């Protein structure tokens, strides 16, 4: 064990914001005994879940048949989580606080489940797991058992908004939950393994964005138990003074609790918790009465950000578990990470050791003859929705309200003649977002997040209704910084994503705008969120939450400034690998379709919506009414762009998805009409990519009949797609017409160059598309050979021109649609 | 501008490891003038690249035709980078140091190119860009111009190992370059925007892993210019004391330099650089002479990690650029991020302002009548390979040596009878890696990285040849920690990936072992590395480097402890979207094939190799010789597993890729042989996934003839694939037999359950595969209906059994292949 005496930190309780020393004995003997009983009960139940499938109260000596055949789960972190839960119970009761806890070391599922069962939340959510001996048996058996509950904290866990399987996101989730929840205390246990991850490290700086007036408080508890799976942790091995500096450097005021003597640790932890809550209240009171920094809303205010408390809890890994197993140390080492006694079913000595371990918690003192927790055990437990397993904040769908979306007519661009005007679609969307921001000014349940790109993505109209959240110094030259802002900008996609997930899962709304290429930074996070939603949707007690909406812009085709490193349209491919009931992908081709799609996704629930749209001037193709109808269908024929006259089947289908491909397809259609007027050309635009999938594979998938009516069963289809071309094949391979499908898209031919050169390099340009058509339609007039050559000639001319002039050919730069 | 006077930091020069005050005037008048001239020249050249396509020396007043038609690039960070480069030149010369610099704010491409041209490295690499007026004109014109060079630091940039487009990885790259390069100083400029990212934040802790004996030094220069694209940066706005605490908490000893008066900043910067280099030498000398902490190789040593210096450089963004443009402040604000004067081609006032700006550097003092830099400008420039643009360490292919790989026979498992024995493939690989570690003990050019999972992934044999790198406290209970270890474990996939990239690009070898699901954490990093390799391969002066090799294990089918959150096989899909000449994907089905694949990838150059292999006991199917032959083909018929007798065509092909799918397919083949012996079954195993692709799309792609010979053109193919099933369709959709291809794989039906239940949930189990065959082969005997029902019955039985017992059906658990 790393330490043997508690070392209360260096600051006083009371209203003083910082400095001094923690009081050592804040608990009476009875209080201490009750807290310890609760902790022991939780520890007992944690061990029981990992090992037992019978004899939960040890009414008889343990036999092999009481032991699960497969021992799965994580003990090491559980006693620490149980300690934190016990003491959170105490301060919630004592201070009358609404609280939520994010369990970073969520692999300690047994601990959180144990506490939820103790406080009754679990049995209220799952009545078959009652708070008695039968329920305890069920609680034990179901854990990590086929058909039972996962080994981690998960959507199935009452009170949770955070799956603990992938480490790094707890603190960002906690801040997301705290934003615009002024009366909520969000505790967040951070494992010392998790603390090594990049996303966690970045999220410490979230305090620079937390408004003490309108936001709640986050209380991080950095739990140093010293070891990961197989290694010591960096933070636990730093010299203590250095760790203290690190946390102060992150902007916090650390309270240190450490030891392995439960009595002393209980006193120190109670004292640290009281001090933390008192300081938080002091900061909030000061800010909210306008008496101090943070209370002023003047953007030029120079008030300092408050220093929020953080608790550093240093206790042994696997504390109270077997000190040694088979002659090697286990408690206080990495060996206690999962299942400290592996052989209990087969090995009587191990089984005896397990039984001693379980009995060391004195279960007879903790549970009555029916298996229910005794009163003393429950003395610290808060009431009703104050219980961590019962807070509505962890079931955000119960709290979410309809977002007040204004009529789109106010923002739509007028389309008198198709393609006659151009707008920057995201700028048009910015006006809509500004209105949403305005409409939620009092409710404060909408946030826009992005990595320093809101203006770059041309959404800056939103600043007219809310500035950018910022608690650090403000200089006179700064613009739009706002201590109470709801636009969130930090150059960390991870933090943006984590904040937004926490905000949504606690019942609010939001949008994440991101450069298309760099959203891959959060690939793994969105995986976890999709998995969360998939699981949550199947739980009747979880109410639907607002969707996680991405606006991906500054996309692959327009990286004029940045080139190859900023070109990657593969996020769509990534999310489409995931559960089809959760994921939606939209590629609106112009400003009005973007408005319609945005309106749709902002109203939706329980989805991850990916919207890809450009920020550069883009031709306006559809009126708002047409856009709505087109988006409702998700894919449709643009009769006006082809040669449709209702009398004949097309010779070829030109399909497109995405703003730049749509422009190229329309230009190609115009070229074909001019040069090969006898050719029957159909133009199909796809907004909702999942419509291409079979009905059986995605709820939006078109029936074959509809697909065939759109794309034909036997005519060549030349499809210009925004991203990697094979994605379209992967979606459409079961369709009858698939053998005739030819897809163009981005194929990693990227660099810093002009917009048109980008499409030429990737064979997505209008001239290439015309050539593709000529190559595929049988029986064309002999003239087609010359037309094809003319197209190839323009491409050759392009290459020479661009190297000479650095700009696009005038006929391309000045091109407009002639309807 | 944020500051107006320089504030030299709080520590002395000389050998003292820390504390005291920086000397204020270390430069003589002439030295200062020469450094300033170099800096001005670099600034002039940076501005020239952004704006000019003619008149590079301003021999006549600027006219519109001298200005590029599209103004692209980033000015804001450039003067700061130029300052750092100038002063690095000085210390390299003065201290006779081998150095490399990683430019985190790599969007400042103009700065790095300017310095490279000044020192002559650029013209030596690209002789057409000579160090004279014509070359300067070319340097300017080519920048961010179609057919020219990218706007960021990139593979095309001499001296670079780091593409600056995606922020966050500079410091990890720098540490990777420093490992096992004891005489190298790796400077690393970190932008204050970049410093907000998670990966960067985590990588500060790399000092806990840097061995002062065998590794070189990293000198981070945190460049606070105050703003990102549109926002202030968090670190620049922290109270200075808090930032100092943060860096101390990260384990460094900060040296502060700030100001906007060039003379004062030059003095302060020279002093800080001298102090930093002196301290680094002191730390290294002490460690290497065994006189102090870090010098002891005893794993139990308690020596403290040294505190390495970091320079905090605070200068205005866009320093020396236009103070105001059109009445708003630009220098010292975010407005100088890209192109401070946007309208110079059209607007004479802007053009005049640009000319004044360029002339403010007094180009006539800097360049002679031929346009070559004058002697004074070059006074600080080091010689030959000491120049940052000419160091061989930045062109690692020049340094890389053949990895000494031992004969595989020493590690191969004996296969007397197929499927009669089982081995954990990664454990077998661990023995090979141990031998590689041993063979490189003196050369020190091989490292194994992983996020705390080396032992979990069963590679721990490697500890027999090298412990785990660790510079923090060591406790008696710890195992395998080693101050000089080359196994790297930190719970940050980002840091692991960054370290390895830096290590490989400087000419060494390595392997990244990772849980399959969590490698998505580095999706975006691997994107950038693949893009780097693609570009580098096309540059004749860049020599090939060792491949980046992933071992993905603890895979989707065996997440017994962790369940759904740990299940994602999509990394393969992600990399297969990238440049086919760079990416390779292998799924060895047993221990010997894993050995053969590992041997191959460790010898390869300039690839990203993804190897997916299990750590759980797996049947041994192939002898080493067979494995080699099979891996060389990449895909082949396993005659012994099917009913091949050379006389008849198969009725059905059972294909498989991956260890678990292979087992299920072999079990299905055995069931078919028993129950439908008249059916001609072919078993095909695929190791190299890219063989399925068309020849035109991937260099490993099979010709159609070969594909057809393997899979037939018209027989049903039931393909059991390790990952998402549609990937196989996406690879094979052009093949003649594609309409008959039916793929099973992972479809997000995940949870904590038994191994066999996982395959049942995803319809990949042997019984389902047999049913698939029966459903697809026409004209089967009527008995097939009963066989199909029997298979369905086992699946039903499975569901009941598992809920009751929590284990797999005995007939599955005890199954072995009967050859």
UniProtKB/TrEMBL annotation, chains A, B:
Region (Disordered): 1-23, 286-307
Coiled-coil region: none
PANTHER family: PHOSPHOKETOLASE-RELATED
Protein name: Probable phosphoketolase
Record's keyword annotation contains Lyase: yes
UniProt similarity note: Belongs to the XFP family.
Protein keywords: Lyase, Thiamine pyrophosphate
Annotated Xylulose 5-phosphate/Fructose 6-phosphate phosphoketolase C-terminal domain residues: 615-817
Biased composition (Low complexity): 286-296
Superkingdom, natural source: Bacteria
Annotated InterPro entries: Phosphoketolase (IPR023962), THDP-binding (IPR029061), Transketo_C/PFOR_II (IPR009014), Xul5P/Fru6P_PKetolase (IPR005593), Xul5P/Fru6P_PKetolase_C (IPR018969), Xul5P/Fru6P_PKetolase_CS (IPR019790), Xul5P/Fru6P_PKetolase_N (IPR018970), Xul5P/Fru6P_PKetolase_ThDP_BS (IPR019789)
HAMAP family listed in its UniProt record: Phosphoketolase (MF_01403)
CDD domains membership: TPP_PK
Location of the Xylulose 5-phosphate/Fructose 6-phosphate phosphoketolase N-terminal domain: 28-398
Names of required cofactors: thiamine diphosphate
């Amino acid at each position: 064990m790393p330490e043997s005496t508690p070392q209360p930190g260096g600051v006083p309780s009371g209203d003083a914001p910082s400095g001094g020393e923690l009081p050592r004995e804040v608990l009476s003997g009875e209080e201490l005994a009750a807290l310890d009983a609760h902790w022991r009960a939780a520890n007992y139940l944690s061990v029981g879940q990992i090992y037992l499938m019978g004899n939960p109260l040890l009414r008889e000596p343990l036999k092999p048949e009481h032991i699960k055949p497969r021992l799965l789960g994580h003990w090491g972190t559980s006693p620490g989580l149980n300690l934190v839960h016990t003491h959170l119970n105490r301060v919630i009761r004592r201070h009358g606080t609404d609280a939520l806890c994010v369990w970073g070391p969520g692999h300690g599922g047994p601990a959180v489940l144990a506490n939820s069962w103790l406080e009754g939340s679990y049995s209220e959510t799952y009545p078959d797991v009652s708070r008695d001996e039968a329920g305890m048996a069920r609680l034990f058996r179901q854990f990590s058992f086929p058909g039972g509950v996962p080994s981690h904290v998960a959507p199935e866990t009452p009170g949770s908004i955070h799956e603990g399987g992938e480490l790094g996101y707890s603190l960002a989730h906690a801040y997301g939950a705290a934003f615009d929840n002024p009366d909520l205390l969000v505790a967040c246990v951070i494992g010392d393994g998790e603390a090594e991850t990049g996303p966690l490290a970045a999220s410490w700086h979230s305090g620079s964005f937390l408004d003490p007036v309108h936001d709640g408080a986050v209380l991080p508890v950095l739990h140093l138990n010293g070891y990961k799976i197989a290694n010591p942790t960096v933070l636990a091995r730093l010299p203590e003074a250095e760790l203290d500096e690190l946390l102060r450097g992150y902007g916090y005021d650390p309270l240190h609790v450490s030891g392995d003597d439960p009595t002393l640790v209980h006193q120190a932890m109670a004292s640290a918790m009281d001090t933390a809550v008192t300081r938080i209240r002091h900061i909030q009171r000061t800010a909210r009465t306008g008496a101090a920094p943070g209370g002023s809303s003047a953007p030029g205010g120079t008030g300092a950000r408050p220093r929020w408390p953080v608790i550093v809890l240093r206790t042994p890994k696997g504390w109270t578990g077997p000190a040694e197993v088979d002659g090697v140390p286990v408690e206080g080492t990495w060996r206690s990470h999962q299942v400290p006694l592996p052989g209990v079913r087969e090995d009587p000595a191990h089984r005896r050791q397990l039984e001693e371990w379980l009995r060391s918690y004195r279960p007879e003192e903790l549970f009555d003859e029916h298996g229910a927790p005794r009163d003393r055990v429950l003395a610290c437990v808060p009431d009703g929705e104050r219980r961590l397993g019962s807070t509505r904040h962890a079931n955000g769908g119960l709290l979410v309200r309809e977002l007040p979306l204004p009529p789109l007519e106010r923002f739509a661009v007028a389309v008198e003649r198709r393609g006659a005007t151009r707008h920057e679609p995201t700028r048009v969307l910015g006006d809509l977002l500004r209105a949403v921001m305005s409409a939620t000014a009092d409710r404060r349940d909408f946030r826009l997040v992005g990595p320093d790109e809101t203006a770059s993505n041309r959404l800056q109209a939103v600043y007219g209704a809310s500035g950018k959240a910022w608690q650090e110094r403000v200089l006179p030259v700064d613009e739009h910084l706002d201590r109470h802002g709801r636009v969130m900008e930090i150059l960390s996609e991870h933090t943006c994503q984590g904040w937004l997930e926490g905000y949504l899962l606690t019942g609010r709304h939001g949008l994440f705008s991101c450069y298309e290429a760099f959203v891959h930074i959060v690939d793994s996070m969105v995986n976890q969120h999709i998995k969360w939603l998939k699981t949550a949707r199947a739980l009747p007690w979880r109410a639907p939450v607002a969707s996680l909406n991405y606006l991906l812009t500054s996309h692959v085709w327009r990286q004029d400034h940045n080139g190859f490193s900023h070109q990657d349209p593969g996020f769509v491919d990534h999310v489409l690998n995931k559960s089809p009931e959760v994921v939606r992908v939209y590629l609106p081709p112009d400003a009005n379709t973007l408005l319609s799609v945005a309106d749709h996704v902002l109203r939706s629930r329980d989805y991850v919506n990916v919207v890809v749209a450009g920020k550069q001037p883009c031709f306006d193709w559809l009126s708002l009414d047409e856009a709505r109808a087109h988006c409702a269908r998700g894919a449709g024929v643009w009769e006006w762009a082809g040669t449709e006259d209702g009398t004949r089947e097309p010779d070829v289908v030109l399909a497109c998805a995405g703003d730049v491909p749509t422009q190229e397809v329309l230009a190609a259609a115009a070229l074909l009409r001019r040069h090969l007027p006898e050719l029957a050309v159909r133009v199909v635009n796809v907004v909702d990519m999942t419509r291409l999938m079979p009905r059986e594979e995605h709820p939006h998938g078109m029936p074959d009949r509809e697909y065939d009516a759109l794309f034909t069963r036997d005519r060549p289809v030349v499809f210009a797609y925004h991203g990697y071309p094979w994605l379209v094949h992967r979606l459409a391979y079961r369709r009858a017409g698939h053998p005739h499908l030819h897809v163009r898209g981005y194929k990693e031919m990227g660099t810093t160059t002009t917009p048109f050169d980008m499409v030429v390099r990737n064979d997505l340009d209008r001239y290439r598309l015309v050539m593709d058509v000529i190559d595929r339609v049988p029986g064309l007039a002999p003239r087609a050979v010359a037309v094809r050559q003319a197209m190839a000639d323009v491409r050759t001319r392009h290459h020479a021109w661009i190297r000479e002039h650095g700009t696009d050919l005038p006929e391309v730069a000045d091109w407009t649609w002639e309807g």
